[in-house]
Specification:
With about 240 residues, this protein is of the alpha/beta class. It has helices at about 5-10, 25-30, 45-60, 85-115, 135-155, 175-185, 195-205, and strands at about 15-20, 35-40, 65-70, 115-120, 160-165, 220. It has a domain at about 65-220: Rossmann fold, CATH 3.40.50. It is built from seven helices and six strands; from the N terminus they run H-E-H-E-H-E-H-E-H-E-H-H-E. The strands form two sheets. It has a four-stranded parallel beta sheet with strand order 3-4-5-6, with helices on both faces. A two-stranded parallel ribbon has the order 1-2. Helix 1 crosses helix 7 (about 195-205), helix 3 (about 45-60) packs parallel to helix 4 and helix 4 (about 85-115) runs parallel beside helix 5 (about 135-155). The protein is globular and about 45 Å long. Belongs to the short-chain dehydrogenases/reductases (SDR) family. One of its GO terms (molecular function) is oxidoreductase activity.
Amino acid sequence: IGAAPVRRLAAEGARVLVADVDEDAARETARGVDGAVAWRCDVAEDASVRAAVAHAVESFGGLDVLVSNALGPTADVPEVSGLTDELWQRALDVTLTGALRCARAALPHLAASGRGAIVHIGSVNADQSFGGHAYSAAKAALASLTRTLADEAAADGVRVDQINPGTVRTRAWAGREERLRELAEHVYPLGRVGEPEDVANAVAFLASADAAWITGATLRVDGGITAVNTSFNRTAG
């Protein structure tokens, strides 16, 4: 999902630091995008996060927007009895605490910009039970962090919001086209799964002056799945 907001924000004239724990992936995302700089960053390490923010500020002369899209392990177990402490902690450390580390490092610079915004990428798993104990718990906690950060940062003119996407067609779904068709036909009211650009459009809006009076909000970009209280296990039968 993260590559699409990079392209969209750059198209709007932003200079973007593409931070990824996989430096080659960061370079691939930044390649061909005007104003994009690739940087290796592990959000599980505070020093790495602070170095990334410092490099962005040094490269661009300031910081206006932070988009937190780091994702911990999504492989989970169907029953909590099989969920290890290690998997649980890793999901929280990357998805939740990683977002906190990024916000903590970026907030002074966002406040200085006079128009700062943070956009967290969450999940519909924060709203309803779609499986994945550790992943879902981390995304739900991220929504709470979004609200508390919004409350604190408002005094400095910084807005903090979250986007909760549904199923989005990314490389993680490669080779699973039949499952995507099933979801589109039987699960999503709008009759299709999401595209990365759907999320990018929401990021661009929340980062823009058009959202100047929006903070602490969660925007569902989910094709209507949470509106109908369905599940990923729903079938035509």
